[in-house]
Amino acid sequence: MSSVIHAAAVYLLFWVSLRIAGRRTLSQMTNLDLILLLFISESAQTSMMGSDNSLTNTLLVIATLIGINVSTSLIQRRWPGLGRYFDGLPLVIVADGRPFSERMQMARVDEAAVLAAARNGLGLERLDQIQYAVLERNGVISVIPKKNSERSNPSGPSSIEYPGS
Amino acid sequence: MHDPRPTEEPPDFGQDLAFQRGEWRAERIGWITIAGLILAAMLGLLGDGPLSSTSVDSPDGSLHLIHQRFGRVTATQALRLRFHPVADADRRYRVWISGAYRDANRVREVSPAPEHVEDDRGRVVYVFRALQIERSTEVTFYVQPRAAGRSPGRIGLVGGDSVAFQQFIYP
Fold first, then answer.
1. CATH among 3.30.930.10, 3.30.390.50, 3.40.50.280, 3.30.240.20 for A90-159
2. Is the pLDDT of residue A107 over 80?
3. CA–CA separation, B169 and B1 (whole Å)
4. Which long-range contacts (CB under 8 A, 24 or more apart) does A41-49 make?
5. Residues of the domain holding B23
6. pLDDT in tens, A60-72
């Protein structure tokens, strides 16, 4: 029983921690973020497994974590309104080439990150080439170019799907 | 961030600014909570640290126990008992710990090592030879709490005084 409770508590702890840390924290993973993630999982593993390294305990912990994960997705499908509490909502951070400064500041997104997302695949070079930039629920920035924007890498957009294209 | 705010609201994209502001508020409260947790841990409110370390003396002043107010399940902590050595007739010192505390904690190590351990009417008695004790007049028990919650204990000398102490163990 304690394995299930510990695993569920660690899942809850992780969910709260990641919501507190903000969606941008692990979406753009630097080398340091990767190491941080490894350290976090290592410390959580000890708490979940305790001194019981048996196959049964491992099975229980994995089953609990996957069970909770599946349950949350089912809950979100059944009650879509609750999804926002699990993953947040999209946020428009640039419209018509102009940034929403306060939103970007609160979401800890800078202009350089938006430009990097615009360059990546879309080949855009400037903010004024962007129609909309949206901070998605998973922390990724989606960029929708202006219809008439010039692109330095015109082959890029074909590999990326975005609304309004 | 050079330009003024866009004047025209873009398409919805599923955003909800009122909810988003609530989320940011919750995020900031979370940051403050994390900072508070770190500060509390540094001060010793969640385990070892300056505010956790305390001591208690027996009424006659013959015993002095140094222990932690706060501990964590399975984390080793020390109980240091200092006393004026008064040996039994058989040149032995007998230090006892209440049975309930002993049951709630696993004794990992005792320094100096006792000659042997006895059970005595619900308490556990650690017997030391006089020579071991007279060098330091201090016995240290390294214990690991088994469960979370309040953990009261009592420690003393057989035929002498004893001290009661309280701990709180975090999960």
1. 3.30.240.20
2. yes
3. 50
4. A44/A10, A44/A13, A44/A14, A47/A6, A47/A10, A48/A3, A48/A6, A48/A7, A48/A10, A49/A3
5. 15-44
6. 999 999 999 999 9
Any idea what DSSP says for residue A126?
A: S
What was the ipTM of the complex prediction? Answer: 0.72
Smallest CA-to-CA distance from B139 within B59, B64, B61, B50 is with B64
Nearest to B23 among A88, A99, A111 (CB): A88
Q: What is the side-by-side strand order in the sheet with B53-57?
A: B53-57, B63-68, B77-83, B138-145, B105-111
Domain ranges of chain A: 2-86, 90-159
Q: Is the pLDDT of residue A19 over 70?
A: yes
More confident residue, A76 or A159: A76
- The answer to whether the CB atoms of A96 and B23 lie below 8 A apart is no
A34: left (phi over 0), alpha (psi -120 to 50) or beta: alpha
Beta-bridge partner residues of B144: B106
Q: Does the CB of B5 have a partner CB in chain A at under 8 Å?
A: yes
Query: What residues in B contact A105, CB-CB < 8 Å?
Result: 1
Distance between CA atoms of residues A46 and A50, nearest Å: 5
Instruction: Decide if B59 touches A, using CB distance below 8 A.
Output: no
Is B70 a domain residue? yes
